[in-house]
Design brief:
about 475 residues, mainly alpha, two-stranded antiparallel sheet, 20 helices, 2 strands
Amino acid sequence: MKRIQRKKHGEKKERDDEAVYLRREINLVSATSFVFGSVVGSGIFIAPKGVLMNSGSVGLSLLVWALSGILSMFGALCYAELGTTFTKSGSHYTYLLETLGPLPAFLRLWDEFIIIRPAVISYLSLAFGHYVVEPFFAPCTAPTVLVKLASILAVTFVVAVNCWSVTMATRTQVLLTVIKTFALVLIIVPGVIALVKGKTDNFQNGFELDGTALDKLPLAFYNGLYAFGGWFSLNSITEEVKNPNRTFPLAIIISMVTVTVFYVLVNMAYYTMMTPAELLQSDAVAVAFANRALHSIASVIPILVALSCLGTINVSIFGSPRMMFVGAREGHLPPIFSMIHIRRKTPLPAVLLLYPLTVLFLTTGEIYQLINFVSFSRWLFIAMATTGMLIHRYRFPLHPRPFKAPVVIVLTFTVVCFFIVGLSLYSDPWNTGWSCALTLVGVPFYYLTTNQFCLPSRWRRAFNSCSKKLQILLEVVQQEIKTY
């Protein structure tokens, strides 16, 4: 009898191994590296200038960095509850779908594909290109064509890795996270040594504002929170996380506490070697710091920053297609994007979907204006997701919640999110107005996808024919085992 049971168990395991579905391959180390790697991109090497400019003093800027980390931790804890309450991948899209309905969820998916993800990946890729190419042409300006070519090669490499293997993508992320950590430590250590030697001139009278108006302080938080962006990356891959009820809270707490401590120490290190005036004059703070504190190995810093950007690109290209994969599975995108490669077990069509639009944004160069669109849309939908979580708590008090964030944290974070949205409308009404317009353009597309029977039959047949040919060409099928 036991032999028969073992045989049946072996046959079931063999069928599961051969079946096409997304495996749970993300352990605690990989999950922590994804959150850490998503947060630590180019922001900490550039944003200190914006934080200091709008806070007005060294002491207040360090306080902004610490509070930005705490607020980001609040948001991450809210999303840890959402990630353990709703076991589907898809992050913001899934949570809006489950709490506020299909239309807000579709608009978030629309923004992700049209605005947010291509713009973010393009911005990071251009930062990568600048840091890789410019050292070869210093002190002259690097040719724009070469910068964009390096950027496109970076995106192509990361897309190829994510198409090839989930395991390869996660191992690449762990490696790049180690490199990011090394880059931060390389900045922190000279700063700590300088502090021990008593180099604290820039910290004297650290909270003197020098007449700076406090109404600019929200903009300092805006810059700080931008540098902490990405704490929600793990929620895009919920169905691939091992033991999510344990992994989600641990990965988020470990990574966010580590990032916050590192960010404060890095900024303290900057101030040991650079005066506030010198920091404000520098567009690449980390490079300027390295030229002062790390004379012999200063040339290494641009490469480390570039690899840091590459790690964040990898997280974006790994996580965002999962949102589109789930959206297609729910009927909000063509079914081809909910299919998986029969051998690689990767969501190949969803990964490839981002590539042409990202390359298009890179070649046009109109990226930095789109970043304003990204910030507004991102914070608006995050605020809606946490609001939806509160509504869901009220409507379904008995729904299982393996992890539950304190209501004070949820309310505080939601209010801050809506404040950031309001600040965007006040400080940059033109760009945020365009962002609203582009979001609302998605409304007719929502009704088109949910009422496909209204399309002419000839169009539907042509669309189905194209989908079948693409499916054969890409060697993809629908997942065969339910993973949520």
